[in-house]
Amino acid sequence: MECNPLPAVPVAFDMETSDPDDVFTLCILATHPRVELLSVTVTPGSDEQVGVVRHVLGLLGRSSVPVGGSTASNPKHVSEFHRKWLGNVPPARPDGLGPDVLADTLRKRPDATLLTGAPLKNPGAMLKAHQGVRMAAWVAQGGFAGDSVVPPEHRLEKFAGRETCPTFNFNGAPAFAKDMLASDRIGGRWLVSKNVCHGVVYDAEFHSRVGALSRRTPGMRLVHEGMSVYLAGRPEGKAFHDPLAAAVALDRGVCGFREVEVYRERGDWGSRLSPGTGTWIAVSVDMDRFFSTLTES
Q1: Taking Cα atoms as reference points, which of 136, 125, 117 lies closest to residue 26?
Q2: What is the mean pLDDT of residues 102-125?
Q3: All domains of the chain, ordered by start, with CATH?
Q4: Does residue 232 register a pLDDT over 80?
Q5: What are the DSSP calls for 125-151, one per residue?
């Protein structure tokens, strides 16, 4: 009996370029057989950032994917790692402003999943400026689940005893984060929380496993090449936050989730168990399922 392949998930990806995570996630999404990459928006969206995104999409044969940015130009928004890995990539202009490109994507494909690995400036501004736009799901790298939400066997020692914690992507635009968490125009929200993703590390062993399968897609080959450069300077490895969120966008079973209300308290974020909110936060991760989803193995 033949197995029917799982359908591709339409994804709009909102990213930044100060952490290598996001560009590795872009590599994975661009050629993953279960992803239909609809558009990429960049925060804050400088020409230097757009240049990196266009360069990677070009290397992977996806130059036609629309890229949203801004009118800004600031080379500091691009990690030095990207220059070491990719060379001196020339700046490029976006196809439009990030919120407008995202809105256009979602108008055409309201069945899309929005994946965010950056402060929520583009999607937050999109919700305000484009009132009729909806999305099927939002998967975010961000948020925090404390001891009252995470079962003891899944708690990371570094967060023991905590109920709240600052998280970069939500604190980068807290008002927009609150809007996204409250919006009735989002079909469901899945937060890949700090307490889980900090336990997912791409190290030498993970690198070896990826290398054995990297011929499966051009994107995974490019990830392997980039992480070879990264590990040469930092052999302890790299926390793989955004790729974990990308895997969740394809398969919710990669993480264990609990339904919560998310709150902000003195600059920290926390969550409390609350049925009926439509917001789910990760409390555990299945590493084998994560790897197989990422590599389609």
Answers
A1: 117
A2: 97
A3: 9-295 (3.90.245.10)
A4: yes
A5: HHHHH-TT--BSEEEEE-----TTTS-
